[in-house]
Amino acid sequence: MVFVAISCNEIRTDWGEEQTYLGRPDFLKSYPGAGRVKLTWYQNADPKIETTVIYWNLRQDSIVQPFNRNPKGGYQKDSVIVSGLDEGSHTFELMNRNQYGEKSLFSTVQGEAYGSSYIGRLRVRPIGSIRMTSFNDVEKNASVKINWNAPTANCVGTIVRYKKFPSGEEVHVRVTWPLATSTELEEVGNRLFHPDDMIYLTSLYLPAGSIDTLFSAELKEQIVSYKPIAGSRKSYYANNSGQVIEGDPNHPDHYSLTPNDVKYIWTTMPQANINLMDCDRFGDFAPFTNFTANLFRFTFNPDHTVDMSGYGGTSYTISNTGGAFSWEPKTVSVYNPETREFKMIYKRTLNATRIITIFEETLVPR
Predict the structure, then answer these.
(1) Would you say 266 and 130 are in contact if contact means Cβ atoms under 8 Å apart?
(2) Residue 292's domain spans which residues?
(3) Which partner for 111 in 5, 30, 70, 273 could form a disulfide, CB atoms 3.0-4.6 Å apart?
(4) pLDDT tens digits, residue range 151-162?
(5) pLDDT digits over 297-319, tens only?
């Protein structure tokens, strides 16, 4: 059978029969969304078009879109949102028809639906630093400043939420890009691992053409001020013969810090959980200012023991006690989730001199 086209709406067979077609949807476009796709098209001036049928999933699924002709006639834009789609690419076929059984030829367009896999790859806008800028000793809350790094592609904003302490007021701060490079939070709580004192962050994404704003998973952050109420240090030197000499004449065995000499502990970015935390100082040494060159890290274990690690460039390393020498204490650092206190014991090894200093201290929330 041979078909010869006479016009865009008529087809004649070689024995003279004619098949009349309605005008088909033109200029199809698709716009991605979360589990859905928006389709737009133009209808031509054919006055006999009554509905548009949208097929997908190999024509196993379909919806019918009624068409209301503008009395002025001419080309007219139409659209529909197809929901309940699986993640991935979909082929949509559109066909016009009317009550008399007349149909158009098919028009085809591809559309993308976002799902859990795509959304799961979205990340919170990178944080350059998060630090306390002040602490209220009466109210036991802090001012916290977040410095932001540049966001990844399609990130249009970040929402920071937390509950003020002690009022319990819930605060939502909208951070827009590129205007905001830092964010100040006031009256932030100060109790380690307390759910009401967490800072939650989620970023908003708007991919090109998307009809939906997508949200990354929330990132939990917390920064806590601690003060040492007891502290001691004892140094040992291992000579070339393996002999251990106790004592370091340059540093006393015991130390004490004033109430203002606090230690800040905060979660380590980026992570969805909070089992890793960094501290700005060890022992009675001065706080770090360069956190790239220095590190003092706590790793929380399910049994509430705490592993210690860290470094100071090439000068020293920090680790648990009991590893290298028989004389090292075998006790471990622990965290009390009820009182939120630390009983800390760890060592610093000077890489050049092999002096090992054992630190023991008790830290309580400020």
Answers:
(1) yes
(2) 224-365
(3) 30
(4) 999 999 999 999
(5) 999 999 999 999 999 999 999 99
